[in-house]
Each structure stands twice: as C-alpha cells, then as structure tokens.
Amino acid sequence: MPATPPAPASQDTREIEWQLAASDLAPVRAWLAANPAVGGLRIEPLPGVRLRDTYLDTPHWRVLRAGYALRLRHEDSRAEATLKSLRSARTDLADRQEITEALADGQITPELAPGAVGRWLRGVLDRQPLVSLFTACTQRERFAVYGAPPRALIGEIALDETQLLGPAQAAREHLLRVEVELRDGHPQALALLVEALQRHCRLTPARENKFAAGLRAAALAPPLG
Q: Does 7 fall in a domain?
C-alpha cells in the first residue's frame, strides 16, 4: 500500500503535462518559431536552463514502494527536492502529485530538509540511507504559452535534450523530449496545440517517463509490488 502522501504545503501541486518523444528537436524549434500563434494561443521563447537531476532511493526501494520517485534537482546555484507520484490520474497525459521543497545552500540531504519533503522522507526511510540511482543532465529550451487577453500564462513547452548517467556517471542513453505542461486552467486549453505539435513535428507520446527511462538505462530492476 502506498504511504500517506506528504502533508499539504505551498508547493504541493499536480503536475499535468504531455510527454512527447522526438527523433530531432530542430523541426520542433523551427515550427515554434514560424507559428507564434496557434489556436488563439501565443507562444514566446523563454531563457533556456541547464538541469542536473539525481534520482534517489534506499537500497530496499522505500520511496518507490511508497508510490513516489525522489528527484534532487540542481539549477544554477539553486537546489530542490521533489517527490513525484508514480501513478497518473489520467491515461491520455501525465497527471501526478508533485511536492517540491527548496534546499538550503550546499544541502544535498533532502531527508534532513525541514519542510514537507523532508518530513515525509524521515517517516518512510526508517533510517535507511538514500543512494543515487541515476542522473539526468538536461539542456532545456523553454517557451511560454499565453491565452487570450488578458495575457495569462497557461502553459509551458520544454524542448529537452537529456543525457542519462548511471551511478558511475557514465553516459548510458540520450533522450530527446518535448514536454507541454499545463500551468493554469483545463487541459483542453492546450489540447489543440499538442495535436498540432504531434502532427507537424512528427512527435509521438513517450512510452516511458524519464524516471522509467533512467532506471532502464542504469539496468535497475525495482520490485513490482
């Protein structure tokens, strides 16, 4: 049985997004540049970011057995720990609980964090140590999606080029992904945009998320039940 979810916090949200697999990001980049308006939506470029995500669990898979994946993210000088539910509430897109806690400068032990993520981990780990499963290094291009006036941010498009690294930090796999995340409103507001991206850029729904791809690339076989 999954453990009780973390107590509600200011960053306890639902992540709702489409995850699309790509063989080449150049056509997607060109199509977005040529189509700044799609179905009443405005698409505008945002600054890109570099992400380094390390996924963690105990040797006995305490976090996964409780129904979550634990991600430690470094972006520039910032660090945060995120618990992501492994079960989606929908089958047509990813709709999962996501709880994020910012970590203090230099802190790399999320189980010691004072907020919702740290408290939940201390209750689940039972003093077992966290170990690195794999690392995902991502160069992310970002595009904001605005709705009709008044100008409101309703979504974000991410073009991700990701290297999956095993525990020894050796490159294991290269992923190209396009993610369309809902920021506000109903998923239907972005459905036509997602359909257009798939049709014009030859994108297909990803068969697995980055967590599953990383486990596979690192040759890790977590328990099934």
A: no
